[in-house]
Amino acid sequence: MGLELWCEDEAGPYQAIPQSGASWQPEGEPARQPHEYVRGGTAKLLTLLHPASGVVRARPVTSATNAVLHPWLKAELTAILATLPPLSATAAKLHAHRSFWEVWQAGLSVRFTLRATLPPLRLLLVLDNLRGHLSADLVCWLMDHGVMPLYTPVAGSWLNMAESVQRILVRRALSGQQPETSDRIMDWLAATVRGWNADPTPFMWGGKRAARRARGRARRHALGGSGACTRRPIRRSRAGTRTLTNGKLHGN
Fold this sequence. Notes:
Elements: E1 4-15, E2 42-50, E3 55-61, H1 66-82, H2 89-96, H3 98-102, E4 123-128, H4 136-144, E5 147-152, H5 162-174, H6 182-198, H7 208-218, E6 221-222, E7 229-230, E8 242-245, E9 248-251
Parallel strand pairs: 1-4, 4-5
Antiparallel strand pairs: 1-2, 2-3, 6-7, 8-9
């Protein structure tokens, strides 16, 4: 449809304490963690993922309040929109039509009000429905710049691919490490993001989970006479499997 798709999320907080992970230890001497509770601070990771290319735009921060998140998100989206190729006159007219925006709200029980005048729609932004993401200031800014926010439902974070890349980045940065300050955590997260972007991996729907669902559908037992099926095989009647031997009735 000529639209860019980006996913946004905030990962963390991650404490400046020894992080669990694989380690080599002498036999009989398991790894031990200090018992002292040291308040070394926490860090979070603001993340924008482009699933089609795998490119990540991220910023490690100590907090993800609206005062921190909104300026960063607006700046990153402005930079992304500036890289998009211009639309032709016909495409711009189509993308600015109200129905082109409304189709992305079809089926929703709660919809935010669209602007009376809309620019051409250029980008879809998937993010969760935190209160800060629903603020009128942010939503209006997104619409004014041709961005349609698509909010994942409660308990539906698996619909946001940014959740997956965050798990990969954080595991690479912190697994088995012992950061002492939040600055150290942020440095490691930033370095890991740079390493990821050097050779990013595109994301797509499917994979092992989709394969498991396909195998589950294949395990259904088809029934003759229609397209119906059952989750478990129907027990066959044993009456028709009996045989007569030496004058006695036997069942197979």
